[in-house]
Amino acid sequence: MRYGIFTCALLLAATAASAQVASHTPTLPAAQPPTQSATLAPTDKPVARVNGIVLTDRDLLREMYTIFPYARQHNGFPKSQEASIRQGALEMIIFEELVYQDAVKRGITIPAAQVSRGEAEFLKQFSSPDEFDAYLKSEMHGSRQYMRKQVERSLMIDKVLKTDVQDRSAVTLAEAKAYYLKNPSKFEQPDSFTFQSISIVPPYKATPDQEKNARARADAAFKQAKAAKDYQSFGLLAEKLSEDDFRVNMGEHKQVTRDKLPPQIIKALLAMRAGDVSNVIQIETAFTIVRLDNHTPAHKLSFDQVKDALRTQLQKEKYDRLRSELAKKLRANAKIEVV
């Protein structure tokens, strides 16, 4: 395996916007940005019909902004993500309409006082009466009563989701413990190291003289590294001398598992105690010096260590499953047309 200067792979996770039905909580109708480009301006044309009820591009755009609020600042959605954002928003407004219709069928009501509190909470987002008036005109047909009905609708959706999904998704400590005992491998932690590095890297296809020069610089760096008393002094030296990507962060490698390291580095680290500095280690044509901060041997996390996070994780999974099941049930007998 080619490790180069043994740098562990740095993975940049791009968070693509996604909108699963199971991951969104209905909100009160949100205000749109003060200005919109022509391409984003809604025209109230139908985008779907749910049991005969028309959903418009205004409903769709509002939900798209909920999924990707950054579009407000950038006056649009990323082209590479716009289609998935739109599809996710469409699925969501259809789902919420189905939930609302189900709430009406079941005779679910919201006390007037609760609607008033919801309305008051919603009004807090507006910075001035003029901003609210503009919103009321553009989004609520200029009607305060219509806005109140939309607030009530959102609260009815919330109530169905609370009784049918949220309240049923609770996970007890006993359930979490049972999962922990049934899935022991999920809580095994591999051998890992936290350390700092100083690396001297000759040019690609270096000449013998360039390699010799790199070795000489590495030896000089080693003498200074040996004299470094602590994390701070070694880190400052790494920032000054190192030629690897970690030099910008005091040379620090955070919690690297054993399988991500070349054997030369593993051998050196295993022979060290916290605070020790290695000799110069050659990996292919590069020269590296490491300072061990901490070695965490492979171990299994105890239930006490994971119980809170595990209950949260299991509850989310249960919530998502129940919500997806609700969506499937409501769709089963519904007439849905996407325009």
Describe the secondary structure blueprint for this structure.
Elements: E1 46-50, E2 53-56, H1 57-67, H2 71-74, H3 79-105, H4 112-123, H5 129-139, H6 144-166, H7 173-182, E3 188-189, E4 192-200, H8 208-227, H9 231-241, E5 252-257, H10 263-270, E6 281-283, E7 286-296, E8 299-300, H11 303-332, E9 336-338
Antiparallel strand pairs: 1-2, 1-9, 3-8, 4-5, 4-7, 6-7
Helix pairs in contact: 1-3, 3-6, 4-6, 6-11, 7-11
How would you portray this structure in words?
The protein has 339 residues and is an alpha+beta fold. It has two domains: 21-173 and 320-338, Porin chaperone SurA, peptide-binding domain (Triger factor/SurA peptide-binding fold, Orthogonal Bundle); 191-297, Chitinase A, domain 3. Helices cover 49% and strands 13% of the residues. The strands form three sheets. Strands 5-4-7-6 form a four-stranded antiparallel sheet. The chain has a three-stranded antiparallel sheet with strand order 2-1-9. Strands 3-8 form a two-stranded antiparallel ribbon. The chain is elongated, with a radius of gyration of 29 Å. Residues 1-26 and 33-38 have low confidence and may be disordered.
Gist?
This protein is of the alpha+beta class and 339 residues long. The protein has helices at residues 57-67, 71-74, 79-105, 112-123, 129-139, 144-166, 173-182, 208-227, 231-241, 263-270, 303-332; strands at 46-50, 53-56, 188-189, 192-200, 252-257, 281-283, 286-296, 299-300, 336-338.
